[in-house]
Fold these 4 entries.
Entry 1:
Amino acid sequence: MSCRVKICGITNLEDALAACDYGADALGFVFYPKSPRYIDPVKANEIVAQLPPFVVPVALFVDAQAEDIESVVANNARWLIQFHGNESEAECLPYNRPYIKALRVKEGDDLLLAAQSYPSASAILLDAYKAGVPGGTGEVFNWSLIPEALPLPVILAGGLTPDNVARAVEQVAPYAVDVSGGVEASKGLKNNAKVKQFISGAKREQ
């Protein structure tokens, strides 16, 4: 089955539409003010309003206040939420939206137990752990740490690039892969050739 692809860190309409043209299944928009890929909610919703059908916009938050989340997702029913901080399941539920919970992976973690703590999630996103950095590290974690019996679909993130994504899909067989820095020209701006190559590598017949 073809692996799905989320292109994260979208900051402009041109990059968004190019990713859609190349076959992206989802686009990620970062609403974490400390991120170099942060996007204003008004601008993000203007972009989402122009996306083609069947492409899912994903709103990424890190331990955000409820009113900040609502200020983004209340304006468009298409939003799916990605919680990328230390949010409990109870903190993910009030928005009545499908959501993804990100987990940062390091040696010694019980990923099965962590995933079981979010039974209402649509998927679990696995990212590299780096102290003090909630995501976007650009680092690959040890994929062999992923248990085979996780109860939710797995979205693989962390240091993926056009050069390693096919190997990642073959080894991990995730539901989807997620990339941001690995397809950038500079922080917040995509390199369209890399985006196209990444999507092709993820979706090729394994």
Entry 2:
Amino acid sequence: MASNQVRASHLLIKHQGSRRKASWKDPEGRVISSTTREAAVAQLKALREDIISGEAKFDDVASRYSDCSSAKRGGDLGPFGRGQMQKPFEEATYTLKVGDISDIVDTDSGVHIIMRTG
């Protein structure tokens, strides 16, 4: 990993406002198209609570609930540098310390929680 890169895992919940309303677990986009941003945020907050309280592990939750194809890797996005991710996502990741989990981050893809892993 280059010195100016970070590594992160994330959990993405898509909603009506997401630019692509389909995912590996909702190929037709039926659920996503009927999910409001508020509902997506509420679900994400509950999942984040479970992770922070220690009731659930980030990678288990990501592999079950994330709308990103990274779900099959427990949400791991691998290393990335500046300019490779959507701006709000990049900024949130670079602000975190390794092991920290972000609050809700909004992008064109949907709402995320991010765990910096490197």
Entry 3:
Amino acid sequence: MLGRTGEQWRAEVLAQGIVDEEMLDSPRVLDFVVSRLRANCLLAARYRPSAERVSCPLLAIGGDADALAPPELLARWAAHTSRDFLSKTYSGGHFYYRDQLPSVCREVLAAAGSGAARRTERPS
């Protein structure tokens, strides 16, 4: 992915539904989006998994049609915790949450539990 041309990146941005096609007519918008995607790909390419596990529950959420992070990839997060693991998939691709944000937020809050909700309500 890192060796893609500008046109290949443009096609990827459109395929993933990151921004509307009209927005990509602006070279500034295309450069902004592509520079972040390249950085994300470089980060992923350099990632080396650790054998260490966290001691907190994990929730992995994704879209059932996500080609970048399919449900079977989400399930791998279970190996990174010594506690409970929950995986939840929603209908959609990589940006599934755009159309389901209230449901996704409820899922995260439910997984975090009432203690997390109380902590967010306290002033710092």
Entry 4:
Amino acid sequence: MIGPFVFCPRCGARLTQQFLFGRERPVCPACGYIVFYDPKVAVGALVEHEGKVLLVRRRYDPGKGGWALPAGFVEIDEGPVAAAIRECREETGLLIRICGLLDVFAVPTDPRGPAVFIVYRGIPVGGDLRPGDDALEAGFFPPDGLPSPLVFASTRRALWRWRREKGFEGRRF
């Protein structure tokens, strides 16, 4: 059985597998509840200032000690843009304005569960740069001076795209 459910979250009966909506899914034979395993929604901000990009050194796993975009999961009561602004503020002390969408990435192998990662472009509009929340360090880095290691394939892909836009065609990370 794929996923964490063995018993129905509604009535507690043991789930069975049925082919529904194009794939095998856990289904409750007692109440008919169908379990859909949906990915979490995560957001990040590629914040640029004076030709440099904002990165944070992670305090916790996954990726402890490595560098990534300021990012996190969308809360149930907020939209993705608000979440990206909140996460950046929590991790870096900076208030940002979202200027557009960079890309959307599928993240099927995160240890916290599959996710869809939305990366926005942003610029700082206030606050003071200081690490917070789950960041050990925060700083701006030029395209040819990114710190190492860069954790998460989605961070590396977003930075590769950003570097390419800046005229740095070099290797992927």
